[in-house]
């Protein structure tokens, strides 16, 4: 500021004592509130007497700020309307006008800071009330009662991780940023040359200079377009790569999670993170970062040009900046919360749709289509309600951010016009300044928009990063690959409860020993813990205590890939994938799995052993036949035989059969059972027995009830014991006999006759009807 302005500034300040006193009052109240809050922050206690005072004082600050702002505005309007040259820039005492602007700037800044403080406190209070009413957003994985501090920590971790993931494309981003800076510079030159052209045409009438400047204008416009395109294209490339990286990292993290995680997490939520949120993260973060960087460089370069054109008018432009920043901050915080809640509601809707569409036959069989639609509608209503709030918030935000820049334009025209009239600024320079100022306003406006959507994107990113960084709750596996793996299975004093139901102990100190080559059948009442044993052997879960061993080594000490080649599982409902039969048989032993894939002959041999080759060959496309989503294009028996071929192709040492034939009809069952019998001859087998024929073939039978091995021995020995097993057999026999008399002549009857002939008391099904 020129030194000669100081006396005027003094005069202005003394003649506008009311404004200064008001500012002083505001600052005093603000300081008092700050001091009070600072002194009482250690005492805490929301809802206490302190908090009442706190609120009261804050209202005082608000009241003084608003009154001050209104008075200041009234004063400015009065001075402008009076048209007094002594206080207007460009008049005989033009610098007094400058002093007025300076005073207004100081007051506005003080007011803005006070309001910023108030707004932050209000947000704090709002947040506190939401927590008090239990409305806090529950993170997908984080603790429900997560504090603000840990949330902030989580969010900064999110930003750091995204920055790290984007850093791989550092060179691309650097070139994009440089192109953006050049484009911003060229863009700022457009108004500059426009002003010059107006002066050359209207005042100086220099034709040559006029045409040269026009050419320069066209050139910079072209440069601006080219570099903007380059920046946009490069950012899109970087962000597409970020999207793929985020998705892949998340998918890998999801694949590494323990089964217990999926027991307690809704799969719809997880899929929504993987599909919608990853796209939001990359698209929003990428787009917004791109725009934010562009706007920031624009602001910087435009300001330089504006200061060069007229530093006085630049100061006026800046009077409104703190207000815009404040609005952006409040809106950003509000919008962020809203965006998080919108994502959560959308995930809930996805869960419902997926659950229903994933089991369409059950929905149709139960005539539950209407209630399914109602459940989906309910979720969408909640989502819609939140979207409406978001829309209203956005509308208010837009109204403010459009109105403020226009008011500033009017102010600039008022003061700039006086400067032109006083001959202290050329009309071209004023036009140039106006264009620059408009560009600046739109850059600020864009930054405001970007700020809020960036906040939304970070909200979505939080949940993605939460999943990416989640550590599985079972220890990492070892790398043991013994050359001579015999297939001895042992469970020692195993105590186990599912993570989803830790209060119920499923296995209570269970001991089990299977020698290499043995076929052991597990029978017992439903819920006794048979399948849980298989899940522990598969290391889906960890026992609470005790150990699960193969050949004397803990199951966790083996290299999991190596072990999965040697321990094969055929479950009751095998899952096939939407790929060819061939690839379904090779599932898990393909090139990408880091294995030497089986040869075509191996696959066909496995299919033959599984009684699957003939039906596969009879299909028009043979082994290349698509199985459909979850194997829907295959019958139950076909699926089961493909699953057996999948187990066989590994040439397993240990075979786990979890009621592998229970879901089949009699004909399919006998074909599948034949295949299984062949398989059992080659491996150590643990079979959860369902059919009598399987139990007959077992070397030993273990009766599992209430989480322990209650009885052990051969079929005959156990019958003689007259314990749980013989009771199971007797009850089953009664049932089988009655069903046989009801369905005389069908396969059940023939089975019953067979059972009666053999032992006079053998079970049809020993596992499911207790
Ligand atoms: N993922 C799970 N989360 C929580 N509890 C489970 C889970 N799976 C099974 N359970 C519970 O564990 C207990 C033992 O189940 P398990 O499946 O091992 O019994 P089972 O003897 O195989 O029964 P069935 O013969 O009916 O298959 C049951 O009470 C069951 O409700």
Automatic annotation (TrEMBL):
- List the GO cellular component terms: mitochondrial inner membrane
The record's annotation in Pfam families points to: ABC_membrane (PF00664), ABC_tran (PF00005)
Q: Which UniProt keywords apply?
A: ATP-binding, Membrane, Nucleotide-binding, Transmembrane, Transmembrane helix, Transport
Write out the ranges of the annotated region (Disordered): 134-154
Q: What is its main location?
A: mitochondrion
Keyword Transmembrane assigned to the entry: answer is yes
What is the name attached to this protein's record?
Uncharacterized protein
